[in-house]
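Sequence in, structure out.
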Amino acid sequence: MSTISLRLPESLHRRVRELAKAEDVSINQLITTALAEKMAALMILDYLEERAARGDRGAFERGMSKVRDTEPDEGDV
């Protein structure tokens, strides 16, 4: 595990402290989770583009051909 020193404006630090207390977690845990969520949001486009590049239209069509052509159940509409 690594340690970093982080400078925050007092207003942001106060709000982080309040949110951490409300969530019953440490400030460290709140910031770590927030950073992980931000990184995931920024990295998702690269992930989706990589997955799309591996796509195979033929395999998709073969899979879809196995799905029965039926009306949805009443609760599914």
